[in-house]
Amino acid sequence: MTQLAATPAPALSTLPPLVVRRIGDGSVPILALHGLSASSAFWLPLAEELRHDCTLTIPDLLGFGRSSKPKIDYTVDAHRDALAPIVDEMPATFVIAGHSMGAALAVALAARWPERVERVVLLNGPLNKEYTRKDERFGEISWWSKLFGAIFYGLAPVWARVGYRLRREIPREVVRDYFRHTTASYTTSLRNVVFRRDVLAEVAELRQPVLAIQGGADGVVGDSSALAWPANVEVHIIPSATHTWPLTNPVEAAALIRPFVAQPANRR
User: Fold this and answer.
1) CA 204 from centre of chain
2) Segment 231-252, tens digit of pLDDT
3) What distance in Å separates the CA atoms of residue 62 and residue 80, rounded to the nearest whole number?
4) CB–CB of 40/98 below 8 Å?
5) 267 phi and psi, to 5 degrees?
6) How far apart are CA 58 and CA 247, in angstroms?
7) Model pTM score
8) How far is 159 from 156, CA to CA, in rounded Å?
9) Rounded distance, CA 107 to CA 117, Å?
């Protein structure tokens, strides 16, 4: 019987560069990373609040938004390698910020480039180990989940057109881009970047100061109020804040971020 050879995963160096927005003309350069299912559009309201103090570079992560979506296992290394050309173009030192899964990636990039990253900002990061233990129940995707995914993504153009009507408090572009990913980019990014890491333990190993802003009503990554925070972390728990708080409350988020990123570097 003739066997078909497996199609090799494309080399990241052969893929188009990530799609990037650049906003602001301030003196503090920030590389801002969005979360799972999102895109750079998630950062737009907050970027507008920070634009006079900061210059934000905001990519659509590999497999999300308008960036390419190769058929690969979306590991931390894959995301980090895709972001490397953008890091190369950043100023000699910069701040890295991330929301949700983007916060987990921000920690990985800060560890990879410790001399380049001065400070780290984590917004609604997956820092609660009880959350990451969901991997124990993640397992293999069942056939019905694959069928649902095929239907869901097959109707993505429809969802992108009408979905904003269901969440009118969220900008239309953010809702539209929520459907710009694939089953592979979603599931393997979730498994590898979030579930199979102890992000808070990695935060404790960073040399940089870290700002963590967590929502007390965050039903996605859970309650972070009882965590044992490392000494290098400045923590703000917003009691009523949900997972999308930085998007829906950009003025308050910017008020916490602005003084933190303006401080001089103070490494351990």
Assistant:
1) 19
2) 999 999 999 999 999 999 999 9
3) 9
4) no
5) -80, 155
6) 14
7) 0.85
8) 5
9) 10
